[in-house]
Amino acid sequence: MEHLELSAQAQAKGEPPVALAKVSQSSSSSMPTPMPAPEPSGSPSCASCAWWNTLWKSLRGFFLIELFQGLILTGKYVFRRKITLEYPEEKTPQSPRFRGLHALRRYPNGEERCIACKLCEAVCPAMAIRIESEEREDGTRRTTRYEIDLSKCIFCGLCEESCPVDSIVETPFFEYTAERRDQLVFTKDMLLAIGDKYERDIAARKAADAKYR
Ligand code: SF4
Ligand code: SF4
């Protein structure tokens, strides 16, 4: 109240309100420090700065300083070890656990490994695998349909980890493409064909990784 009365008196005299002045003083410790007002552009010191800046830029341009700085930087890297590769002719080394294109494997006698247990289908977080199965005449169970939708797959590798017979695996091959989404649905025949083609590589990678499991 006292501040408001003082403020009214001050306003009547044409002075700044006291209460507001006190508030601004008491809150000054918590408020950020205001930026100093810029000097008028026409001041003599700024004019000389601008003149020196212009002269410095002109000299740098005239003596090609930036060009030589760039050449020095390039020269520093000419004799260092290369850290870039000319893909696709050159490729980075791959871990035996690299997760690329899927494949279904067979036993050496040509029999499919998959026993249609559907663990891979159950564990797949992207629900990218579809399996249908039936019992054969010899009493074994095999898949009649095995599909992976690679447009859904996140290449987590859980299907490979869950498979009890090392049937579904992820190969080191990642250079494949498709023009339509339906071309990314890999059927059982396609997956078996990939497995047949790359069985030697798949087996070598499994053997290299076995001692760490
Ligand atoms: S890699 Fe992962 S997301 Fe892809 S099919 Fe296997 S479990 Fe599913
Ligand atoms: S691929 Fe492996 S986990 Fe999947 S259904 Fe066949 S045996 Fe089971």
UniProtKB/TrEMBL annotation:
It is an enzyme of class 7 (translocase). Its cofactor is [4Fe-4S] cluster. The keyword Iron applies. [4Fe-4S] cluster 2 binds at residues 124, 153, 156, 159. Pfam families: Fer4_7 (PF12838). Gene3D superfamilies: 3.30.70.3270. This is NADH-quinone oxidoreductase subunit I.
